[in-house]
Amino acid sequence: MSEFIWQVRVYYEDTDAGGVVYYANYLAYMERARSEWLRTLGFDNQALADQHGVVFAVRRVSLDYLQPARLDELLDVSLTLKKRGRASLLFEQRVRRDDVLLCQGEILLACVDAGSFKPTAIPQSVINKTQ
């Protein structure tokens, strides 16, 4: 799969007392990029829950913080689907400012039943769009 890129602007609320993006906000940026990626495939999170009875839950995160992002900067948040399992998606995600890599990591999502939160197979329609 090719790299998907979504842009985000750093707002005052994203920064800490030092004037840089608070570390947990990188996770929020990555989450939004994954949601927008799904949207470009023709899905949204609510429709997956309503129509297919599934949601994607974060199972594991590993991040490296390399450089700070600051107020008003425009960031590129990218993702690449590295591996798709029967009930999981492994993403490589990066946050860049221009060509400067700020943060990178791997995020493993589990596909779970929207009611029981037990692992379940990824819907075939999602699989078909991610091949």
What does this structure look like?
The protein has a 5-stranded antiparallel beta sheet, with helices on one face. 24% of the residues lie in helices and 40% in strands. The model has no long low-confidence stretch (mean pLDDT 96). The chain has 3 helices and 5 strands, in the order E-H-H-E-E-E-E-H. With 131 residues, the protein is α+β, with helices and mostly antiparallel strands. The chain starts with a strand and ends with a helix. It has one domain: Hotdog Thioesterase (Thiol Ester Dehydrase, Chain A, Roll). The longest helix has 18 residues, at 23-40.
Give a short synopsis of this structure.
By secondary structure, the chain is α+β, with helices and mostly antiparallel strands.
Shape by Cα distribution: elongated
Instruction: Compute the CA-based radius of gyration.
Output: 15 Å
CATH fold node name: Thiol Ester Dehydrase, Chain A
CATH class: Alpha Beta
Number of separate domains: 1
Mean pLDDT: 96
Number of helices: 3
β-strand amount:
35-45%
Overall structural class, as computed from helix and strand content, comes to alpha+beta
Instruction: Output the helix-strand order.
Output: EHHEEEEH
| SS elements, strand count | 5
CATH architecture: Roll
Side by side, the strands of the main sheet go 1-3-4-5-2
User: What is the straight-line distance between the termini?
Assistant: 7 Å
Name given to the CATH homologous superfamily: Hotdog Thioesterase
Biggest sheet record: 5 strands, antiparallel
Helix content: 10-25%
Low-confidence stretches: none
